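Re: the 359-residue chain
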Amino acid sequence: MQQSSVKLMPSTALSDRILDSLNASILCLDSNLCVSYANATAEALFECSAAKLIGRRFDSLLSRFEPSSLLTRLKLDAIALTEHEATITFSNGKSISADYSVYPLYHQSQDDELLIEIRPLERQAQFAREQQNQMQQQASQQLARGMAHEINNPLGGIRGAAQLLQKEFDNPDWYEYTEVIIYEVDRLQALTRNMLGCDSRISRNPVNVLEVLEHIRKIILAAEPERITIYRDYDPSIPECMADHDLLIQTFLNLTRNAVQAIDGKGSIGFKTRIGRQFTIGKITHPLVVQIDISDSGRGISKELSETIFLPMITDKADGNGLGLPIAQDIISRHGGTIHLQSNENGTTFSVILPLERT
């Protein structure tokens, strides 16, 4: 008796989970080049849910001035093809450099379909930049903390000596000089505490990121009610993340104050939150992350400064100490996340990416 061979196919739910776990964006197009399937990574790439992508023509997702040959290739006879380092421009104007592949899917009972796989190259470049920035940050922080420790030791003695001198002076007019010494010592001690403060451990608890941002918004608007307008674009479905509540407040307050200082005269700041899927931070790919964008309408940051902006003591502000951004980066790094920077003459955006772990 001949044994029939049976090919077991994974269930639809399992197939979807497998496709959603890929770093590449996967789309299926029907014979009219309309999207019939999109995985989670494609949702993140096109910044649109699968429910809204399905049924749309693929060419409507790309710019009319699309420089790559992707659309042209789709109009040819169905053959498998791959193109490397292509520039793909989306309908919202965003461009990426990516490798893409097109595969024909043949069916006996229905029209032929196409499968498109898009693999952005920015992640590889971003990974290299993150590694370099992390090494620079660690080296500079070790140096800064060592200097802070050595500076902090004699400051207490200087302050004590100034107070003793103040008690010995018969002329009250001389108090002015000792008060200057005490004031400047206190200011230096505050700076060294900031430089040494990043050693504190983080306490992870469920934190609502939107509540943290609303708290920051109230602080900024209380200080700058007439000059600063804050716009909010929140995704209310974002779950709580496991983080240190107080350290997140310190991080977002530092970033928002930096945005306020970048604005001359009246201006605006934007808070935006979104879910990201299959996002790689360092060597780890996280299934889900939350991205918090803090944007300003300020003067922007020069390319030269942007490459070192997260290093201690680096600032373009006359009254800045260059510690706010390095401390923010250090806090987010210890949470397993990262901070990205985009800046031009129209303003700056700091994007905080935090992994969403199961609570």
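The mean pLDDT is 78.
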